TrEMBL record:
The keyword Protein transport does not apply. Belongs to the otopetrin family. This is OTOP3 protein. It is a multi-pass membrane protein. Keywords: Cell membrane, Hydrogen ion transport, Ion channel, Ion transport, Membrane, Transmembrane, Transmembrane helix, Transport. Residues 1-21 are annotated as: Disordered. It is found in: Cell membrane. It comes from Phainopepla nitens (Phainopepla). Its main location: membrane. The chain crosses the membrane at residues 54-75, 87-106, 126-149, 161-179, 191-211, 266-287, 308-334, 346-370, 390-413, 425-446, 507-526, 538-558. It comes from the Eukaryota. InterPro entries: Otopetrin.
Length: 573
């Protein structure tokens, strides 16, 4: 690959970065060794861009396949490939990614004409805030892992201390990089930058895959400890095929600090999976923006701001759903973690969802109908961030939809007339409908142009009326009649349009709050699909663990990503 640049004058291109120099007369066209002899510079630039994306994509694909092979070998043959071997591979990938990020921060981004453009749609504040939030939780997770492994150093490998130490440095550096450079449209060293971004994406994907498989081990440990407690309470612990004597070889001693490290590690583990997915999405947008040149009509003249105005019912209903959901979640956690959990807690949990999900579905359908009635044009401009949002919404929804279908098959095949089974069946069906309707509403809203504030139209009309009065020298009576007619016409038009915008804002805000509570509950440990035991007994212990651990992180990511999309719909309504 070659990263040679050819300078050509460009009189219509302007800088979009505050830090960029004022002289933007040079555009660094891409040049790839396969397309050196193209007659047109623009054609050669496009072909080189495609080739650079192809080769960097192949690099990421090979790295991901290598990591997947290591993790799969660790799962199916723990003697030949151990967890320490996977950690060594990931440490190497982290170090390579760190070297590239540092080179980008100190070298590439500081070159002349490196960042002439910045994508205003990329790196929204909510997603960069998510990177910081999940990154902070992941740092604490690694600290707890270091402390836990240090206490049990007599029975644990030193790699279990070195790996999280490298992880802390990697998370801090990557979070700083994404916070400051997520909007960059880099114009130099195109191929090297693409390969570096794809290497970092592949590293995060392998980390996510390892986190998903390791989360299974933690859930098994929790289930085992619960069975032991039940045994002390007088009930014989049930046998599971994955339990053995290995967990007894390295147990936490009876010390408070060790229990804190262990519980903190288990509590923060889901945040690590979300951090990896969020970083992958931001890095992918940066990869798509490499070499991108943004023209003037792609840049919004006014940046939409979040203002809580004109909405009453959406925040009220959404806040009620959050408060009730928090109460249900606390009751659920207290009951499930007790020695003798009652099936009544599952009835409460499923009943809450059965009431909330239809409300969300109806709101999404009404919002979609209003979008169809509106006369706002579709935004057809090229936008990598919006394209990625659509793909992530559709892809992440497959996690919950897939688990729901597996659950439906298991419940229908066993005893759907049982109260708990019928509630779980209704929950699964309603969850599928809610995911589909919400996706349609959000995706349709993201493709709509921003609505024009009616106040500006009123100012323009008043100014035109004033000029017409001065020119024609109308009498006061005629002027009053014209103003009255114009005011009545404006009030009629505004009232006709404002109810649609108001309803869209109410619906999007209500759905955003509902998705927040539906994100919080599974993130902090509410997993009824595993803990009720119905699907687990139908599919088997190991099979259902795989289904839940692949579907659950995607479902959590879907809820979090939906909040950002719904707030975008709220702002642009």
């Amino acid at each position: 690959m070659s990263d040679k640049k050819v300078s050509r004058p460009c009189h219509h291109c302007k800088s979009k970065s505050a830090s960029a120099p004022t002289d933007t007369s040079k555009i660094h066209y891409e040049k790839f060794w396969l397309y050196r002899h193209c007659s047109s510079v623009q054609l050669r630039d496009r072909q080189a861009q495609k080739a650079g994306r192809l080769f960097s994509g192949l690099l990421a694909m090979n790295v991901v396949f290598l990591g997947s092979a290591f993790i799969s070998s660790m799962i199916f043959n723990k003697v030949a490939i151990t967890l320490a071997d996977v950690w060594i591979l990931l440490s190497i990938l982290k170090v390579l990614s760190l070297f590239w990020i540092i080179y980008y921060l100190l070298g590439t981004s500081r070159q002349p004409h490196a960042v002439l453009y910045r994508d205003s749609h990329a790196g929204a504040i909510w997603i960069r805030g998510s990177v910081l939030l999940f990154g902070s939780c992941s740092i604490f997770l690694n600290v707890f892992q270091i402390g836990y492994s240090t206490i049990l150093v007599h029975c644990k490998s030193r790699v279990e201390i070195v790996f999280p130490s490298i992880g802390i440095i990697f998370i801090c550096t990557q979070a700083y990089f994404l916070w400051h450079h997520s909007k960059d449209c880099i114009q130099v060293q195109h191929n090297f930058t693409r390969c570096g971004l794809m290497l970092t994406i592949a590293t995060n994907l392998i980390l996510w895959l390892l986190a998903v498989t390791n989360d299974t081990l933690h859930m098994e440990i929790e289930a085992e400890l619960r069975e032991v407690e039940r045994g002390f309470a007088g009930k014989a612990p049930s046998s599971h095929p994955h339990w053995g004597n290995e967990t007894a070889l390295c147990t936490c001693p009876n010390s408070t600090i060790c229990k804190i490290f262990q519980k903190g590690y288990i509590l923060l583990y889901p945040f690590n999976t979300e951090y990896c997915l969020v970083c992958c999405s931001v890095l992918y947008v940066m990869w798509k923006n490499v070499g991108r040149r943004i023209s003037d009509h792609h840049v919004p003249h006014t940046k939409p701001k979040f203002k809580l105005q004109g909405v009453v019912f959406g925040p009220l209903l959404g806040t009620s759903a959050v408060i009730i959901g928090a109460c249900v979640f606390m009751i659920y956690q207290i009951q499930v973690t007790s020695l003798v959990p009652s099936s009544q807690v599952f009835v409460i949990y499923y009943s809450y969802y059965i009431v909330l999900l239809p409300l969300m579905s109806v709101g999404a359908v009404i919002g979609t109908i209003i979008h169809a009635l509106e006369k706002r044009e579709l935004d057809t401009l090229k936008n990598p961030t919006r394209s990625l949002d659509v793909v992530l919404l559709m892809g992440a929804a497959l996690g919950q939809i897939g688990m729901s279908y597996f659950s439906i098959v298991a419940l229908v095949a066993t005893d759907p007339r049982d109260l708990l089974n019928s509630l779980a069946l209704s929950y699964s069906v309603l969850l599928i409908i809610q995911n589909i309707t919400q996706n349609v509403f959000v995706i349709d809203g993201l493709h709509r142009r921003r609505a024009t504030p009616p106040g500006k139209e009123e100012d323009t009309k008043e100014e035109q009326n004033r000029e017409a009065y001065i020119q024609r020298r109308l009498s006061m009576l005629e002027l009053g009649q014209e103003i009255r007619k114009a005011s009545l016409s404006y009030i009629h038009t505004y009232s006709h349009l404002s109810w649609k915008r108001r309803v869209l804002k109410e619906i999007s805000f209500f759905l955003a709050l509902c998705n927040i509570i539906l994100w919080v509950m599974p993130t902090f440990g509410a997993h009824p699909l595993f803990e009720n035991g119905m699907e687990r007994s139908f599919y088997g212990y190991s099979t259902w663990f795989v289904i839940v651990n692949f579907g659950l992180p995607l479902g959590v990511f879907y809820r979090m990503h939906s909040v950002g999309g719904l707030l975008e719909v709220y702002v642009t309504a």
